[in-house]
Amino acid sequence: xxxxxxxxxxxxxxxxxxxxxxxxxxxxxxxxxxxxxxxxxxxxxxxxxxxxxxxxxxxxxxxxxxxxxxxxxxxxxxxxxxxxxxxxxxxxxxxxxxxxxxxxxxxxxxxxxxxxxxxxxxxxxxxxxxxxxxxxxxxxxxxxxxxxxxxxxxxxxxxxxxxxxxxxxxxxxxxxxxxxxxxxxxxxxxxxxxxxxxxxxxxxxxxxxxxxxxxxxxxxxxxxxxxxxxxxxxxxxxxxxxxxxxxxxxxxxxxxxxxxxxxxxxxxxxxxxxxxxxxxxxxxxxxxxxxxxxxxxxxxxxxxxxxxxxxxxxxxxxxxxxxxxxxxxxxxxxxxxxxxxxxxxxxxxxxxxxxxxxxxxxxx
Length: 364
What we know:
The protein contains five helices and 27 strands. It is mostly beta strands and 364 residues long. The relative contact order is 0.18.
């Protein structure tokens, strides 16, 4: 197979599966192939382990699990993963990548909005969420629920994988030119420095002036496969506009906020929210960083889409103010335009979103 430089689109992912470069432990599920990524599914077993780990270049994950596992759990009938614990799950997908084709993982949007921390691990890996070109072997998923206990089962999808050839991230000059042509964010002169700046909206949405949600402690569990099964009021406290348009983040608390800018990912590009930046404050924003081609694209029904911000303060209280920069979006070229775009007939849950909780919650 020949791969053009860039993020590989849905049609190439399907070809990789057909050619045996991606092995499936169960038939491909509906919607598993996204415009620029492949959803990864939990396998039959998950292991409660003493601590997170990287296997190192000379060790397989199975060997490390054998020495660190506290308990083996069968997922075939479903199981609850508790907050504060670390688990390593087998995945149904494994890889036999050709030379030159690498992969990178990230939590799915719904996973991040539940404050479930996940990282993909490959055999002999020295980095999380990174699969080197030419890798051949199994994939595992580290799972650590931070706020809500979650019910998962074989086939549950918590993470996603992008396939990449070459270095195709746009530099600042290219980003400025793309913004001029396509309007990446709804600011005429956005801050562009190692990505496009994204700021937090604390002006309030709707008549109530809702600015976000703070997760409650000691809630019931969330079934990750059950859409709309949880009452918002049982899991979240709403936060409303306050004088000064500021919000104090309490250490250890989890918040859902929204960006002030509407975000646009043109069809020939993919985007990612960069990880926590210590230069903008003592907090982390956005566990789930992938934005698919077509997100916020008017032609795919996404005009006005905001970026939802999953925010957790670190060790000290921290004041967020309206319009404060909280992250940056980096853009990469697609190897070719995907055969389908985010939101365009895919049943995408977060196209044209404003301030939105994960798909698991419904208003009472």
